[in-house]
Amino acid sequence: MAAPFTLRAAALHTPAPDTLEHWPDALIAVDASGSIQSVQPYNGQTPDNLLTLPPGHILLPGLIDLHIHAPQWPQLGTALDLPLEQWLQDHTFPLEARYADSDFAAEVYGAMVPALLANGTTTALYFGSIHLPATQILAETCLRHGQRALVGRVAMDHPELCPPEYRDASAAQAEADTRSLIKAIRALPGNESALVRPVITPRFIPACTDDLLHRLGKLAAETGCHVQTHASESDWEHEHVLDRCGCSDTEALGGFGLLTRRSVLAHGNLLGDDDLALIRETGAAVAHCPLSNAYFAGAVFPLRRALAHGVRVGLGTDIAGGAHPSMLDSARMAITASRMLETGVDPALPAGRRGRPGARIDATTALWLATAAGGAALDLPIGQFRPGYQFDAIAISPGSNLTLPPGEAPARLLERIIHTASRANVARVWVAGREVA
What we know:
Distance between the termini: 16 Å
Strand content: 15-25%
Shape: globular
Helix content: 25-40%
CATH topology of the largest domain: TIM Barrel
Structural class: alpha/beta
CATH architecture of the largest domain: Alpha-Beta Barrel
Radius of gyration: 21 Å
CATH superfamily of the largest domain: Metal-dependent hydrolases
Number of strands: 17
C-alpha cells in the first residue's frame, strides 16, 4: 500500500465519448489503498502530504491496453507484410514456443513490463503463451513492477491448425493448466488487492476444439474470471468459423458460454448487426486495435456503429500485430482509421460513394477509448478521476515534439497530446496511488 497523499495538478479526463472535463488547478486526494477520495479545485489549501506537478504538466488517467500478446514482444515491428495465418505459423507460433524456457520468459517480460509502464500503460490485458510457468512469471513480473494486469495462459489444442510443437496436449490438460493459473495468480503474495487478475484465454475458435471451448465456458461460469479471445478479426478467421460452426464468432462464443460481462473480444472488424446486439445483451466488450487491423484485418472497425448499438469498446495495441507499444499511438491511429472509414480510400470511386458518413472520431473520443472506456470494458474502477476510482494516472510533460502553451483551450491541449506526445513526454506514472515509473 502507498502512503496517502494529495496531488495538485492540471488534469484532463474523458468520462464519456464526447465529453472532456478539465481542471486547470485541481487537488486530487488519494488514500492508502490507492483510491481517489476527492477531486476539487485548488483554493490555497495546504493538505498533508501535498505533491505538486510542475507548471506545464498535465495529468491524464492511466492508459488501458485491452489487447497485448506478451510473448510477441521480441518480434515487435517484424514480418507485418504477411497474411495473418502465415504470420502466425511462420513467425509467431515458433517464437511463442520458446517460452517453454522460463529463463527466456523472465528476460523478455522483465524488459517489457517496465517499457510499457514508461509508455503510460497502467493496465494491460495480456495473452501469455501456452506455458504455465512462463505465464506465472508474467503475472509475477507485473506485480513486482506495480502494473495493473489481467494475465491469461493461452489455450489452443486444435491438431489441424496448431503446430505439434506448440499446442496443448489435450482439452483436459488445457483446462487443468488454466485452473492452475487462476489459483496461482489469486494466491500471489502481495496480490491481496487483486492488482493482477487471471483471464481465461482461448486463443480463438480456429485454434481450439469444441471440447476445449465448452470446458473454458464452464470454467468462466464457475470462477467468474475475465475471458479474452479474438473474434471476427480477418476474412480468413471469420470465414473459418462460419464454415466450421455455421455461425459467426460471436454466436459461437455465446454457445460455448464464453460471452459474459467480463469478456473482451479483440478486433471485431467483421461483426454484423446481430453480433453487436448479442455482445450488447451479454455485456461483453470489444478491444479495438486500429494499427494491427491495418496490417491483418482487411477492414476498418466501425467504431461509431458499435457504440450506436450500445456495445462497450476500448482500445488495444495488439502487440506484436500492432507495431508500436504506445497507447497514445493507438489513440491517434484510431482517429486516422475513423477518418479513412468516413471519407473512403478508393480514388476510383466518387467522393460521395467512397466512405461511410459519420464514422470519424476526435481526440476526446480517442482518449476516452484509451482510459474510461477500457476501465468500463474490464468492469474495473479505473480510467477516470472520480471518487472511488483507483488513482492510475500519468503526468504528461512538454518537450520533444509536444508543446503545451499556457492558456490554450483544453480540447486543443488534448489534441496536441494525442497527436504529438510520445514515451519521452510521459514524466511520471502511478498505479493504485503508487508511483511506478
